[in-house]
Amino acid sequence: MAAQAKDTKRRRTALVVEDDPTLRQYVRRLLEGLDMEVAEVAEGRAAIVHVAIHHPPDIVCLDLMLPELSGYEVCEYMRSEAKLQSVPILIMSARALPQDRAYAEQVGASTYLVKPFRRDDFNAAVARLLDGPPAEDGHP
Predict the structure, then answer these.
(1) Which domain holds residue 80?
(2) What digits encode the pLDDT tens for the residues 117-128?
(3) Does 104 fall in a domain?
(4) Residues 6+ apart with CB under 8 A from 116
(5) Residue spans of alpha helices (H) in 9-114
(6) CATH code at 78?
(7) Domain count, the chain
(8) How far apart are alpha carbons 109 and 107 in whole angstroms?
(9) What is the mean pLDDT of the chain?
(10) Using CA atoms, how far apart are residues 16 and 77, in angstroms rounded to an integer?
């Protein structure tokens, strides 16, 4: 019976928005390794269409420099939609200047990773966004 209950638990979902196919596949594999269902798109406009017509993902992994609409614009759109306001947005960008990070936070990004990033850093950021910070001293 316990195994059956586990099977009915909904897997977490992620949307990867990245125009570089190699990096998009890498992020997909990392998320699948965390037992997540992953959808992916390669441009900003496609990201907006995806979140508008599908159930909100549990997390969005978003590049800033995208064709058609920037990651900043995607982030602004998501924060303007009631059903998407609480979805964590993990920015993945080669833009490492403090003003890039500050603007991403201003438009609603939840956290920011500079490319290239390590698998452990990515996994830790996803875990923090989905589950919150780890409990100190082993207490919840």
Answers:
(1) 12-131
(2) 999 999 999 999
(3) yes
(4) none
(5) 21-33, 44-53, 71-80, 98-106
(6) 3.40.50.2300
(7) 1
(8) 6
(9) 91
(10) 16
